[in-house]
Amino acid sequence: MGHDKNWGKDLDTTRAALASWRRLHGGRGRPIPAALWSDAADVARANGVAKTARALRLNPRKLAKLAEGAPRSMVEPGGFVELGGLGFGEPRTIALELVGREGDRVRVEVVGGAGSAMELVALARAFWSRSS
């Protein structure tokens, strides 16, 4: 297998990003953000999974799946979410799932039209702005 001329640069950049994330978020036991996994998969595709996983201290099985092109759940944060059209006021169940930057999730179910869109907006804002 030949080495990509950007191997050192890409590996160093990804290693630095992972180290920074691990320092800020506690590392072990916390889900690594999809964007960092994506960067690691790009390096692994060019230079091999085992070598990349070892260098970046990542799970080689998960990295292999991503490098092989397994579907990624890359979700970019939205700046605006429209809640119109969800049928507030209609007698049915509405379920929303909020996903945080580190993959943490909360599922909210509003049953029978109870609650308002403004309450859900306040809940979402509180969830996304809390400190880890």
Tell me the total number of β-strands. Answer: 2
Order of SSEs: HHHHEEH
Please tally the helical runs, counting DSSP H or I stretches of 4 or more residues. 5
How much is the radius of gyration in Å?
A: 19 Å
Distance between the termini: 42 Å
Overall body shape: elongated
Spans where pLDDT lies below 50 across 5 or more residues: 71-75
Assign the structural class, choosing from mainly alpha, mainly beta, alpha/beta, alpha+beta, or little secondary structure: mainly alpha
Helicity range of the residues? 40-55%
Q: How many structural units, i.e. domains?
A: 2
Mean pLDDT: 76
Please give the largest β-sheet: 2 strands, antiparallel
Q: How large a portion of the residues is in β-strands, by DSSP E?
A: 5-15%
Strand order of the largest sheet: 1-2
